Amino acid sequence: MSATESWPADAAAPSLADIDALARAAFAALPEAMRARCDRLVIGVEEFPDDALLDDMGIEDPFELTGLYEGVALTEQSVDDALRPPDRVTLYRRPILDEWADRANVSLRELVAHVLVHEVAHHVGLSDDDIAAIDDWTL
User: Fold this and answer.
1) Helices 108-123 and 93-103, axial angle in degrees (round to 10)
2) What's the pLDDT at 122?
3) How does 87-102 read in b/e, with b if 16+ C-beta sit within 10 Å?
4) For residue 94, which of 60, 52, 64 has the smallest C-alpha distance?
5) What are the structural domains of the chain?
6) Alpha carbon distances (Å) from 59 to 18, 32, 43, 102
7) Per-residue pLDDT tens over the stretch 81-115
8) What average pLDDT score do residues 41-56 get?
9) Taking the CB of residue 126, how many other CB atoms lie within 10 A of it?
């Protein structure tokens, strides 16, 4: 689907499974060297972040959070981290769909890939400022 393609008017909104499939395709398209660094990374899709998470992050509007990385960045890990649960990237379906509808200049595939890559970048140790600089440079 290109940026000019839209979801068919008579189709149901993309489901959790649709967003998950797009996220998995985006992950599979990452370079092998990047995917290899994500062997303990779990990727999931949920409707919205829960209220407790939003409260912890100081976010009032649940539509503001399209994705989240939870874990210890590879650049910060130690041998003690081998005993903790795997790191996790969660994409939030409704906020992603809302941003997609608002922007209208990007395909859903591109937006899901962008959110996924942003969160994977946190896993490998990039900050929001690092990621923003890359986004600015590549746009």
Assistant:
1) 130
2) 87
3) bbbbbbbbbbbebbee
4) 64
5) 16-74+83-138 (3.30.2010.20)
6) 26, 34, 22, 20
7) 667 788 999 999 999 999 999 988 889 999 999 99
8) 95
9) 17
Q: How far apart (Å, rounded) are the C-alpha atoms in residues 19 and 2?
A: 16
For residue 3, the SS3 value is coil
Within 10 A of 36 (CB to CB), how many other CB atoms are there?
A: 9
User: Is residue 43 within 8 Å of 89, Cβ to Cβ?
Assistant: yes
Q: What is the mean pLDDT of the chain?
A: 85
What one-character-per-residue DSSP string does 54-120 give? HHHHT---GGG-SEEEES--GGG--GGGGGSPPEEEEEEHHHHHHHHHHH-SS-HHHHHHHHHHHHH
| Six token digits for residue 9 | 């008017």
Instruction: Tell me the average pLDDT across 31-39.
Output: 87
